[in-house]
Specification:
The chain has 12 helices and 9 strands. It is globular, with a radius of gyration of 20 Å. Helix 1 packs across helix 9 and helix 7 crosses helix 11. It has 2 domains: 40 residues, no CATH class; 272 residues, HUPs (Rossmann fold). The protein is α/β, with parallel strands linked by helices and 327 residues long. A 5-stranded parallel beta sheet has the order 5-4-3-6-7, sandwiched between helices. Strands 1-2 form a two-stranded antiparallel ribbon.
Length: 327
């Protein structure tokens, strides 16, 4: 199998495009698509200057997606004084799992000379996910607890750090799964929130009055297998093990259905996201004045919420944890 661009040995075949590519042209292709996504999403505004740069906080877990994203962002902006990158790793307190992935994070950020911060559930909430998963007092899947804490920790740290954007390593498969789950739920408001939270150009999204640091997903055009191949070819330090508490059964079903559709009909994921993003944009325009949007602040931690206390604080209290500053 030869590369369609140069005739060298191909390392991959993209069924959705029909292209066979060698290592060099494959890596160029990924670089090009990520940089195009950064341009199309208007991540770097004209107002950014060397004297007033943008600070981008990258959620770095040590898995293939976040590692590849961090590497690509570094390669793209290392010599650009308009962007400052900071990587943050969340340590959930999962024995034998996060410690191993943290090693990959430390190796990468040391190699790239990127500022790196580690935030732990133990320090932030006086909780560890191993204990939460074992006790499970609310009879919830471990991912349900962890998702709330992770989003809060990333958002709060981004806000405290003064970050202009929060970047995560969600790939095409991740986004197509989320799109299908939102569509099948029939929750148009959630689709609208998804757009304003992390899809589309920053010229189209309303983020000026958003109480959260806006998110971006520069890898959302890259299939998961291509992210994994890029990490392998670039010899990046990654931790490939799955979280021992992972239990998102519904997402797993959607993942398998989309995999089967993609096998039979290459390009399905791209088509889903193309149509979904337009639908989400229209939904966002219709619901931007929705009263469901956060109107106040949590009386305990100050996070945006419509209730007296946010969901994170409710869970911390139920689980017997503590927030910094609690008496």
């Amino acid at each position: 199998m030869e590369c369609d661009k140069c005739g060298s040995d191909a390392v991959m075949h993209a069924a959705y495009s029909g292209l066979h590519m060698c290592e060099e042209h494959f890596r160029r292709s990924v670089d090009s698509r990520v940089r195009r996504r950064i341009r199309e999403d208007a991540l770097l505004p004209e107002s950014a200057t060397p004297d007033d740069p943008e600070t981008w906080l990258v959620g770095l877990s040590g898995g293939k997606d976040s590692v590849v994203l961090t590497k690509l962002l570094h390669d793209t902006f290392d010599a650009d004084p308009r962007v400052e990158l900071v990587a943050v790793t969340i340590h959930e307190g999962i024995d034998g799992y996060r410690d191993a992935s943290l090693e990959a994070c430390l190796e990468l950020t040391d190699d790239l000379d990127i500022e790196h911060e580690v935030v732990s559930y133990a320090d932030e909430y006086d909780l560890e996910m191993d204990d939460v998963a074992a006790d499970d007092p609310l009879d919830m899947a471990p991912c349900a607890y962890c998702g709330v804490f992770r989003r809060d920790a990333l958002s709060r740290y981004a806000e405290e750090y003064g970050a202009d954007k929060l970047l995560t390593g969600h790939n095409l498969d991740d986004e197509a799964q989320t799109a299908m789950m939102n569509l099948l739920s029939g929750d148009v408001r959630q689709i609208a929130k998804h757009f304003d939270a992390s899809l589309g150009s920053f010229e189209d999204r309303e983020v000026d009055d958003d109480p959260f640091v806006p998110r971006a997903k520069p890898l959302r055009d890259i299939p998961e297998k291509e992210v994994a191949l890029y990490a392998h070819l670039a010899e990046l330090p990654t931790h490939m093990a799955e979280c021992p508490h992972a239990s998102e059964a519904y997402r797993g079903e959607i993942q398998q259905h989309l995999h089967d559709l993609e096998e039979d009909h290459p390009g399905t994921r791209h088509s889903i996201m193309s149509g979904y993003e337009e639908l989400a944009r229209l939904a966002a325009e219709a619901y931007r004045d929705d009263a469901d949007a956060p109107q106040g602040r949590c009386e305990r931690c100050g996070a945006p919420t419509n209730n007296a206390t946010c969901r994170k604080c409710e869970l911390v209290e139920e689980l017997g944890g503590e927030l910094p500053g609690d008496d």
